[in-house]
Amino acid sequence: xxxxxxxxxxxxxxxxxxxxxxxxxxxxxxxxxxxxxxxxxxxxxxxxxxxxxxxxxxxxxxxxxxxxxxxxxxxxxxxxxxxxxxxxxxxxxxxxxxxxxxxxxxxxxxxxxxxxxxxxxxxxxxxxxxxxxxxxxxxxxxxxxxxxxxxxxxxxxxxxxxxxxxxxxxxxxxxxxxxxxxxxxxxxxxxxxxxxxxxxxxxxxxxxxxxxxxxxxxxxxxxxxxxxxxxxxxxxxxxxxxxxxxxxxxxxxxxxxxxxxxxxxxxxxxxxxxxxxxxxxxxxxxxxxxxxxxxxxxxxxxxxxxxxxxxxxxxxxxxxxxxxxxxxxxxxxxxxxxxxxxxxxxxxxxxxxxxxxxxxxxx
Length: 363
Fold this sequence. Notes:
This protein is an alpha/beta fold. 37% of the residues lie in helices and 23% in strands. The chain has 2 domains: 4-144 and 324-361, 2-Layer Sandwich (Nucleotidyltransferase, domain 5); 157-319, Nucleotidyltransferase, domain 5. The strands form 2 sheets. Strands 1, 2, 3, 4, 5, 6 and 12 form a 7-stranded mixed beta sheet that branches. A 5-stranded mixed beta sheet has the order 9-8-7-10-11, with helices on both faces. The longest helix is centred in the N-terminal third of the chain and has 27 residues, at 58-84.
């Protein structure tokens, strides 16, 4: 096996599991070698979600949760290596995004918090860990997000073709790669986070499989219009957001007794409309979708309907499984950090300039 090996770890806004990928890189392009998904333990997921609100004894709970998450990341890494038949010694580094607990990129003192002790992860795996990617960008005046556009431009775009890459995780973000290669991007608003929370409350399942429940409802147009009036959607970029804003309290503040299935249908339209609205001026030739939203067939239909002038597919069209794109991005960012190369795009995050991201925790 030629080329350096890197591991990427991602646990997203939904906190439903850990994605681990093994990537082989020649220094410019990468190849996905192996993947592994580890469902998040229910007790840990509950504690992660609880941190979205202020609570008691947070310092002790935070330290305990961080250690437990590091152990879960280590189990995922070791399972990945076993399945791939690769030794830890063969891997150059792990790029660990960590679990975001809070993201407040605006205000007098902006901050972001991702946990999953990289010291403990390095000890458990015997592999160098690169972590804490977002705070250097924020220290340089940026939003600390989104960080994936540089990866999207490097690995998913074709020269001379105006391309949009849409990552629909809990929060949706877009990367615009112009035909001349220039890159921009920002968080568009809710992706799956409101859909998952609403279906969980009313159907008792973690997500609306394929968007089937939403498809039984009707769009409530006054509700959709009211939601789209939130100031976030009109704000100029750079911008980023999270479940601190877009959560069930935000949804219920707009409601007046509407049928649950109709609300779910409207939330699908909210995600599709806010993504399409972000792309309308760019008029991309192709739109590649990744993240959990790529598996929501009904949401994909609505995106296609709202972007009739673009070819809308998942990233599978360019040979990259949409489920693993974000984890791969953090493997790529770890490689950049070890090489002393910047990982942010200042036009995307608003940072004062390119920065090498993350801290290095040697094996």
